[in-house]
Amino acid sequence: GIHARQIITAKSLENAVTVVYAVGGSTNAVLHLLAIAHEAEIPVSAFNIQRLHEVGQRVPLLANVSPHGRYHMHDLDGVGGVPAVMRELLDAGLLHGDCLTVTGRTVAENLQDVAPVRARAAQEVLKPFSDPLSPAGNHIVVLHGNLAPESAVVKLSGKQNLRHVGPARVFNNEDAAFKEIMAGSIKKGDVLVIRYEGPKGSPGMPEMLSPGAALVGAGLGKYVPLVTDGRFSGASHGIMVGHVTPEAVDGGPIALLRDGDVITVAPGER
């Protein structure tokens, strides 16, 4: 019978990344897919964060769903769901159609009877490749800079103000940052830095749910970027740069930051 390692390959993981980008999925997919590749013993040379970035540069945003869009996943399901998304991507040459799936058939064989978007009734939930919601390279983006010499990840879809320069407010854990936000000491223009929350430092790389939500609740979501070696929710608002590598506990540059250091966050200028 079919076993997992026949299905989980570098090419099938590229397919997964492609679908994530097309529907506006979470940055958490970056972590999960890289972890799956590691567990499946796929060579790093075949599937890595740089490859994720390269794939993202050619995939447009097609699904007009929350948190960046007007509709929700049940609406997407109503116009064909993930198979309709995949058919659009396959027709555009963005999927590896020869990958084996759990059905025992290839991706292309699974999708041969799925109607393309252009053949469906008029709707605004799923856009065709020829008229995407957002052009390629504008969803999940891998960044590099002197605070993240190896990499960092940011989600751009649905975001504005893609350049920010401001003083750092530095915290060594999520709870300390949350308390200061709630106390009103974080101001418009600051750059909130939460470090020692990476895979080793926390340990476990938690989501910065409380600080992110607190910034939005305080009316600062659009005005205070968050930079962290931890991760953040796919539903986060504002500029949130996560997965900063090397993380602080490994001696990454983020560990050297002090309050008042001026940080430029400019994912739109990558």
From TrEMBL:
GO MF terms, alphabetically ordered: dihydroxy-acid dehydratase activity; iron-sulfur cluster binding; metal ion binding
Keywords: Iron, Iron-sulfur, Lyase, Metal-binding
GO BP annotations listed: branched-chain amino acid biosynthetic process
Pfam families according to UniProt: ILV_EDD_C (PF24877), ILVD_EDD_N (PF00920)
Catalytically driven reaction(s): (2R,3R)-2,3-dihydroxy-3-methylpentanoate = (S)-3-methyl-2-oxopentanoate + H2O; (2R)-2,3-dihydroxy-3-methylbutanoate = 3-methyl-2-oxobutanoate + H2O
Catalytic activity, EC: 4.2.1.9
Associated pathway: Amino-acid biosynthesis; L-valine biosynthesis; L-valine from pyruvate: step 3/4; Amino-acid biosynthesis; L-isoleucine biosynthesis; L-isoleucine from 2-oxobutanoate: step 3/4
PANTHER family: DIHYDROXY-ACID DEHYDRATASE DAD (PTHR21000), DIHYDROXY-ACID DEHYDRATASE, MITOCHONDRIAL (PTHR21000:SF5)
Protein family (similarity comment): Belongs to the IlvD/Edd family.
Name under which the protein is recorded: dihydroxy-acid dehydratase
Species the sequence originates in: Pyrodinium bahamense
Lineage: Eukaryota, Sar, Alveolata, Dinophyceae, Gonyaulacales
